[in-house]
Design goal:
This protein is mostly helical and about 140 residues long. The protein has a domain at about 15-110. Helix content is about 70%, strand content about 0%. It has seven helices and no strands. It has helices at about 15-25, 30-35, 40-60, 65-80, 90-105, 115-125, 125-135. Helix 3 (about 40-60) packs antiparallel against helix 4 (about 65-80). The two termini are about 40 Å apart.
């Protein structure tokens, strides 16, 4: 028996771990931009490839997408992660991560996640009741 509520917010198209990976890979550009701007051209392709691989594998094995949609989502997120500015991947990944969090948060049951613990707390006497019985 599940007490999980339906969420009024639809599920995000990207798994939260893929969005987080895009944000994390996007942070590498701030380091390379300071060190050597010429190196930025070569690093951009590598980070884009890492973003593509991370998103594709997360979508395929964690989100249980088929290979076609997983590759398409990986390509899009890889392109955003590979843009040589430390804001592009964050601008796309952060809203997707917030969307996923809101979707899960609204879906949470009002009574709690563990029905056994909830029923034990409901049946247990309150602390004030126990103290008054001890005083008698």
């Amino acid at each position: 028996m599940s007490i999980e509520r339906k969420s009024s917010i639809s599920a995000p198209p990207i798994h939260p771990l893929a969005a987080l990976a895009t944000i994390a890979l996007d942070g590498f550009f701030s380091v390379f931009e300071v060190l050597d701007p010429f190196m930025l051209l070569f690093i951009s392709g590598g980070i884009g490839l890492l973003g593509f691989l991370a998103t594709t594998l997360v979508q395929r094995y964690l989100a249980k997408d088929e290979w076609g949609p997983a590759l398409a989502k990986g390509l899009v997120m890889g392109i955003f992660a590979g843009v040589p500015y430390p804001i592009a991947g964050t601008a796309i990944g952060a809203p997707l991560l917030i969307w996923a969090g809101l979707h899960q948060w609204i879906k949470l049951p009002s009574n709690g996640n563990n029905q056994i613990v909830d029923s034990a707390f409901n049946k247990a006497p309150a602390l004030e009741d126990q103290e008054s019985k001890e005083d008698e």
